[in-house]
Design brief:
10 helices; alpha/beta; 3-stranded mixed beta sheet; Rossmann fold; 7-stranded parallel beta sheet; 2 domains
Length: about 325
């Protein structure tokens, strides 16, 4: 049994990861600041199941200002998922993105490397947005983010590598590609589409609907993160794309949701949004070869699961 810290544990990915780690027999310490990007009540619901587990403890902590060092004593692994997400709002709320994504990461790294004991494995959760408008290549592709969000996440990656060099901190970076499934954040595309479809509301399609994403179902995403943790001899010092390996357009997603729900989407056209990626297609060859990563949930089954969750939420 390892002692593992999960930052952002009340979030979409963090809550699922915490449940998986507990199920695998680990002791998990969840940390979250409950930044009001979306309602706290939804994050509390994310934690409802895992809070019942005896091997899970939780601390509400603001990584930008609170004392952090005691939280990392005796810790074997840190999954750093806490971040201010979302492309569009990063243009108008840059201070929040800078402090939550850059300053908070620097303070976490400072707190961890201040420990005199052995350094924990620090797994930094990043995003395909660091690649820019076309995220289709391997991990050593040029990093050309086109949104403040992507820029701050790339800065967080670079901080991790700097601390790895200075303090011999074992670091792995995992770049996630369009994660979806039960508990998806309410500001994310598929949640918005399903909610509007069920309520008969109008869905705005930004651009021509042919922007594409390489979607990653939640259980596949979590499996990729766990594999990186389980094989530090293969993952430390490396970055990995964690994606679903299946590319679909916005128009295709809406068609699938119409078929699954039996409802017809009402849509209207809107302008392209600044910072949106035109195409993402996760090149997961490195994760497959080094970690044995093999995503198994196709887009139809994944959307079916998310639709069922939103119907019952």
């Amino acid at each position: 049994m390892s002692k593992i810290v999960v930052t952002g544990a009340a979030g979409f990915v963090g809550s699922h990861l915490s449940e998986r780690l507990i199920a695998d027999g680990h002791q998990v310490v969840g940390l979250d600041a409950f930044i009001p990007y979306y309602p706290r009540a939804l994050k509390e619901q994310n934690l409802a199941q895992v809070r019942q587990q005896p091997n899970f403890s939780f601390h509400e902590v603001d990584f930008r200002s609170d004392e952090l060092r005691p939280l990392f004593e005796g810790v074997d692994v840190v999954f750093h998922l806490a971040a201010q997400a979302g492309l569009l709002r990063s243009w108008s709320e840059f201070d929040s993105y800078m402090t939550c994504n850059v300053q908070a990461t620097q303070r976490l790294l400072d707190a961890i490397t201040a420990q005199q004991s052995q350094r924990p494995h620090f797994i930094n959760i990043s995003t395909s947005s660091v690649y820019g408008r076309f995220a289709t290549g391997p991990e050593d592709s040029p990093k050309e983010p086109v949104s403040p969000y992507g820029i701050t996440k790339l800065a967080a990656e670079q901080l991790c590598w700097a601390y790895a060099a200075k303090d011999k901190l074992p670091v792995t970076v995992c770049r996630l590609f369009s994660v979806y499934g039960p508990r998806q954040r309410p500001d994310m595309g598929y949640n918005i589409f399903i909610r509007a479809l069920l309520n008969g509301d109008t869905i705005t399609i930004f651009g021509d609907g042919e922007d594409s994403r390489s979607n990653t179902f939640m259980t596949d995403c979590v499996q990729g993160l766990v594999l990186a943790m389980q094989q530090p001899d293969k993952s430390v010092g490396e970055a990995f794309n964690i994606g679903g390996g299946e590319e679909v357009t916005v128009n295709r997603v809406l068609q699938i949701l119409e078929d699954l729900s039996g409802k017809k989407a009402v849509t209207k056209a809107g302008p392209k949004r600044p910072g949106d990626q035109k195409r993402t297609l996760a090149d997961i060859a490195k994760a497959q070869e080094r970690l044995g990563y093999a995503p198994s949930t196709g887009i139809v089954d994944g959307l079916r699961a998310q639709l069922a969750w939103q119907l019952n939420a």
